[in-house]
Design goal:
The protein is α/β, with parallel strands linked by helices. The protein has 16 helices and 14 strands. The protein has a five-stranded parallel beta sheet with strand order 7-8-9-10-11, covered by helices on one side. A four-stranded mixed beta sheet has the order 12-6-14-13, sandwiched between helices. A three-stranded antiparallel beta sheet has the order 3-4-5, with helices on both faces. Helix 1 packs across helix 4 and helix 7 packs antiparallel against helix 14.
Length: 460
């Protein structure tokens, strides 16, 4: 029988069903593949890079020549079912992540999906606690990015095995089966009320999004104006601008965009860790006139107390602090929340240890009543994170205030089930799985260094 764990763990938060709780409904879908264990017989990982730096897509104050890239993982099983996962990287670093994925492969090959999901906690620990490899992290850096790629593929495989969408699948599992911690359980059980209405609402309206694609740092003013006016015509009302390299430039660009979008649209600014703490406070104070909702990554992503000081200083200006795209694990998020060091939690589907760890952060954010606005600036991140944010709304927070998911308008054409944006909202995905399967032709063309795209680039 194909069953998820009764006792399990979401990231580091263990969830156990309380004795007083009604027995949980066993879900019929778990029986669908009762006959198949889906033994993983192979793990392939490929270095897929897109030359986005050529046109400055994705550029910011610290990453001036980003080539959006992925360590792309395919799991093959003896049943023929496959799982697809990736982690996001920027060009050169991808080959290092590939090595780390290969180092983890031995822990995955030979295991059946049934074996993994019947003790997901143990499997997560196996990947993150190997006595020799954990020295590279633990649970941070390259080894954690590799863990995310592998676990994203496992979650995809599991959702496909159940013939279900990931966001709907986890919302069912984590209410009905993997419950050990009272508080987490209470949150999830409480959110059962109104779940169906919220799901219907999402199917009809979608989840609110904001765009970063108008104002990458390397774009000219002319380009910024054109993209902004196109976006306004397509219904966008929330915009993010890259800042942090030159104050006078920032003032000019932010004024320009604020003028274009008007006073009622929402504006966010993102410095990608460019400043020291005092510099962040004075720089952002100068930009307060354009009324940004948040300053994102003002300083080192590891400086929790620095973020707390910035939050405190900027609160009177009505500017919050957002961070998370380089917050390397749930423990960091815990401390950011405890220290009131952020006002917007930016989970990232490839930085943390996949769905497991992201669910732990969603639950903590709910507890601290801090809105979650995921990071999605990269290749495949929009496809992945849409599942997590739908889960957050439908099954955890039940709240849309001050919440929106990032959207960047690049590279979706390379996916078999690309995200669908309508009227500046993410429309729920329709195909089973975690939405990160890439078109074989795209992978072949963009694989580094042998793909046609790179052979041409290298010849230049
Ligand atoms: C290098 C990436 O494009 C980064 O700038 C993305 C980012 O900070 C965001 O989307 O936010
Ligand atoms: Mg950012």
């Amino acid at each position: 029988m194909f069953k998820p764990a009764r006792h399990g763990e979401v990231g580091g938060v263990s969830l156990q069903r309380s004795q007083q709780q009604k027995p949980l409904r066993s879900h019929d879908r778990f029986n669908l593949c009762a006959e198949m264990s889906h033994k993983i017989v192979n793990l392939r990982v490929r270095d897929v890079r897109f030359p986005t730096s050529l046109e400055q897509h994705g550029s910011d104050a610290m990453h001036t020549d980003p080539d959006y890239s992925a360590a792309y993982v395919v799991l093959d099983t003896d049943s023929g079912l496959k799982g697809f996962g990736l982690t996001f990287t920027l060009g050169k670093g991808t080959e290092i992540v590939l090595c780390a994925v290969k180092a983890l492969a031995g822990l995955v090959i030979g295991k059946s999906l049934q074996e993994i999901v019947s003790n997901f906690r143990g499997f997560y620990r196996l990947l993150t606690s190997d006595g020799q490899m954990r020295w590279l992290g633990p649970e941070k850096g390259v080894i954690h990015l590799a863990t995310a790629a592998v676990l994203n593929a496992v979650w995809d495989l599991w959702a496909r095995a159940e013939d279900n969408l990931l966001h709907r699948f986890i919302s069912e599992i984590y209410i009905t089966d993997v419950l050990t911690e009272e508080e987490a359980l209470d949150i999830l059980v409480k959110a059962q009320e109104g779940k169906k209405q919220r799901e219907d609402q999402m199917l009809k309206e979608g989840y609110p999004a904001y765009t970063t694609s108008c104002a990458w740092l390397g774009y000219s003013d002319q380009q910024l104006k054109q993209l902004c006016s196109d976006a306004l015509k397509s219904g966008w009302t929330r915009f993010k601008v890259k800042v942090g390299a030159d104050l006078e430039d920032d003032i000019r660009r932010c004024r320009l965009i604020r003028k274009m979008i008007g006073p009622s649209s929402t504006l966010m600014i993102d410095a990608n860790q460019r400043w020291d703490v005092a510099e962040a406070i004075s720089w952002v104070s100068r930009l307060a006139e354009v009324k940004p909702l948040w300053i994102e990554e003002p300083t080192s992503p590891d400086d929790i107390l620095g973020h707390a000081a910035i939050s405190k200083a900027l609160a009177p200006l009505g500017i919050g602090v957002a961070t998370g795209e380089q917050c390397h694990n749930r423990v960091m998020f815990k401390q950011f929340l405890q220290a009131s060091a952020l006002q917007f939690v930016q989970i990232d589907s490839c930085r943390l240890g996949s769905v497991n760890e992201n669910l732990a952060v969603l639950l903590m954010a709910y507890k601290f009543q801090v809105p979650v606005c995921p990071h999605a600036g990269g290749v495949g991140l929009c496809e992945l994170v849409q599942h997590l944010i739908l889960f957050d709304y439908i099954c955890v927070s039940a709240d849309l205030r001050n919440r929106m998911c990032e959207y960047v308008d690049h590279l979706h054409e390379h996916f078999t089930s690309p995200v669908v944006i309508q009227d500046a909202h993410y429309m729920p995905p329709k195909d089973p799985g975690y939405s990160c399967e890439m078109l074989e032709e795209s992978v072949n063309r963009h694989e580094y260094p042998e793909g046609d795209i790179w052979k041409q680039e290298i010849k230049k």
